[in-house]
Amino acid sequence: HWSRICSRLQAEVGEVEYRTWLKQISIGPVDGDEITLNLPTRFLRDWVRTQYGDRLSALWNAELPSIRRVELQVGRAEPVADPADAGEGGGSADAAPVAAVDERVAEARSELSRHDLAAPLDPRFTFDTFVVGKPNEFAYACARRVAERPSSPGFNPLFLYGGVGLGKTHLMHAIGSELTRGGKVSVAYMSAEKFMYRFIAAIRSQSTMEFKEQLRSVDVLMIDDLQFLIGKDNTQEEFFHTFNALVDAGRQIVVSADKSPSDLSGLEDRLRTRLGCGMVADIHATTFELRISILESKAAASGVAVPAKVLEFLAHKITSNVRELEGALNRLIAHANLFGRPVTLEATQDVLHDILKAHDRRVTIEEIQRKVAEHWNIRLTDMSSARRARAVARPRQVAMYLAKQLTSRSLPEIGRKFGNRDHTTVMHAVARVTELMERDTAFAEDVELLRRMLES
Ligand code: ADP
Ligand code: MG
């Protein structure tokens, strides 16, 4: 029976897989409706159980209907000779090669656990430390969902995308930490770049089999910054196969990139298609409110009192990515700790002089006026005119607001550029626009759009 089952399996899975995994099975005793199969290590047992368990039961049952269950055990028990198969089927003649493969596998495994295959997870990047706001709430919810119930239909793969420094890596690590906490789930996280180097190294050392085995032995595979694989066709190909093998085996894949699957031109079509098959979640650019929340949370964690004014100032000045925002705050905090001085707005401008200069967008007030006038279809001269009709007054206020946000000009300087208006007029405009943006989402979107156009 066993030899017939073996030849079936061999035909089904191919010679290599058969020799690596299944040939190492030896038959144990039959007990009622259950047959015990032995494997030399726990890893092999788990692997065979997850990969071939159902198939083995089905084949045994087809051969011997009295057998309904297959029990996989760790052990090197002498095989109980199958009457039809004397001396075959993983007996002592195979002991040496088994040990060799076993060693290789054990090595591969320990490499995995030494984080050689995967990068270690950063303990700071957890769900708890991730600040949720409108721009990232969907991605956050998806990440949480995957961490709670990996491999759920509809969420596999999870594809996270968004600009630099918006929290993609943070969320991936959070998923990983959450899942590995119980100790039951094996997670491999690595950048696409690392994936490629590992793949190339494996080719060079003729160990692609081991590399594939390692990759395919994890429960959750997370590949960060997939856009790196654009133009790297062989690595893409390898990733595609790994991807399919894992998803088909019911494992979870999480991928991040800077663009949506459909916008990742340069990736193979079939890969893009599969990447878009699960859940695609984008992280949008931060809003002022989210930047404030993030700063507040990080300031609170640091234990240094940072005045709201300073946080607002930073959130206004550093808008492009959270990493830089965090970096600026950390520097302020380090300074405060080092010199034991309170954090003030003046100190901030001083300490962060270089960062702030780099973030002074070169956008000019004239540019802002032009874009805003175009957008609402008013004359450029109305930016400086005395007309108070709402149709021109409102765009003018938006332009002032954007000038305050996007340039480092002072209120009086801005006022002068708008037909010599007073700085209190600019102040009023900023307050008015902020208030309107909160009340009117369509208006807020208009302003955000203008800001993005001007920033890019
Ligand atoms: P990405 O991978 O998208 O380029 P990261 O995940 O590396 O961005 O985030 C950059 C930095 O900003 C990290 O230190 C991360 O902890 C922090 N960060 C990003 N978004 C948030 C957030 N919503 N809450 C807290 N920290 C965040
Ligand atoms: Mg990242």
From TrEMBL:
<keyword id="KW-0067">ATP-binding</keyword>
<comment type="similarity">
    <text>Belongs to the DnaA family.</text>
</comment>
<dbReference type="Pfam" id="PF00308">
    <property type="entry name" value="Bac_DnaA"/>
</dbReference>
<feature type="binding site">
    <location>
        <position position="169"/>
    </location>
    <ligand>
        <name>ATP</name>
    </ligand>
</feature>
<dbReference type="GO" id="GO:0005737">
    <property type="term" value="C:cytoplasm"/>
</dbReference>
<dbReference type="GO" id="GO:0003688">
    <property type="term" value="F:DNA replication origin binding"/>
</dbReference>
<feature type="binding site">
    <location>
        <position position="168"/>
    </location>
    <ligand>
        <name>ATP</name>
    </ligand>
</feature>
<dbReference type="InterPro" id="IPR010921">
    <property type="entry name" value="Trp_repressor/repl_initiator"/>
</dbReference>
<keyword id="KW-0547">Nucleotide-binding</keyword>
<dbReference type="InterPro" id="IPR024633">
    <property type="entry name" value="DnaA_N_dom"/>
</dbReference>
<dbReference type="InterPro" id="IPR020591">
    <property type="entry name" value="Chromosome_initiator_DnaA-like"/>
</dbReference>
<dbReference type="InterPro" id="IPR027417">
    <property type="entry name" value="P-loop_NTPase"/>
</dbReference>
<keyword id="KW-0238">DNA-binding</keyword>
<dbReference type="GO" id="GO:0006275">
    <property type="term" value="P:regulation of DNA replication"/>
</dbReference>
<keyword id="KW-0235">DNA replication</keyword>
<dbReference type="InterPro" id="IPR001957">
    <property type="entry name" value="Chromosome_initiator_DnaA"/>
</dbReference>
<keyword id="KW-0446">Lipid-binding</keyword>
<feature type="domain" description="AAA+ ATPase">
    <location>
        <begin position="154"/>
        <end position="357"/>
    </location>
</feature>
<dbReference type="Pfam" id="PF08299">
    <property type="entry name" value="Bac_DnaA_C"/>
</dbReference>
<dbReference type="InterPro" id="IPR038454">
    <property type="entry name" value="DnaA_N_sf"/>
</dbReference>
<feature type="domain" description="Chromosomal replication initiator DnaA C-terminal">
    <location>
        <begin position="364"/>
        <end position="433"/>
    </location>
</feature>
<feature type="region of interest" description="Domain III, AAA+ region">
    <location>
        <begin position="120"/>
        <end position="336"/>
    </location>
</feature>
<dbReference type="GO" id="GO:0006270">
    <property type="term" value="P:DNA replication initiation"/>
</dbReference>
<feature type="region of interest" description="Domain I, interacts with DnaA modulators">
    <location>
        <begin position="1"/>
        <end position="96"/>
    </location>
</feature>
<keyword id="KW-0963">Cytoplasm</keyword>
<comment type="subunit">
    <text>Oligomerizes as a right-handed, spiral filament on DNA at oriC.</text>
</comment>
<dbReference type="InterPro" id="IPR013317">
    <property type="entry name" value="DnaA_dom"/>
</dbReference>
<feature type="binding site">
    <location>
        <position position="165"/>
    </location>
    <ligand>
        <name>ATP</name>
    </ligand>
</feature>
<dbReference type="InterPro" id="IPR003593">
    <property type="entry name" value="AAA+_ATPase"/>
</dbReference>
<feature type="binding site">
    <location>
        <position position="167"/>
    </location>
    <ligand>
        <name>ATP</name>
    </ligand>
</feature>
<dbReference type="InterPro" id="IPR018312">
    <property type="entry name" value="Chromosome_initiator_DnaA_CS"/>
</dbReference>
<dbReference type="GO" id="GO:0008289">
    <property type="term" value="F:lipid binding"/>
</dbReference>
<dbReference type="GO" id="GO:0005524">
    <property type="term" value="F:ATP binding"/>
</dbReference>
<protein>
    <recommendedName>
        <fullName>Chromosomal replication initiator protein DnaA</fullName>
    </recommendedName>
</protein>
<comment type="function">
    <text>Plays an essential role in the initiation and regulation of chromosomal replication. ATP-DnaA binds to the origin of replication (oriC) to initiate formation of the DNA replication initiation complex once per cell cycle. Binds the DnaA box (a 9 base pair repeat at the origin) and separates the double-stranded (ds)DNA. Forms a right-handed helical filament on oriC DNA; dsDNA binds to the exterior of the filament while single-stranded (ss)DNA is stabiized in the filament's interior.</text>
</comment>
<feature type="region of interest" description="Domain IV, binds dsDNA">
    <location>
        <begin position="337"/>
        <end position="456"/>
    </location>
</feature>
<dbReference type="Pfam" id="PF11638">
    <property type="entry name" value="DnaA_N"/>
</dbReference>
<dbReference type="InterPro" id="IPR013159">
    <property type="entry name" value="DnaA_C"/>
</dbReference>
<dbReference type="GO" id="GO:0005886">
    <property type="term" value="C:plasma membrane"/>
</dbReference>
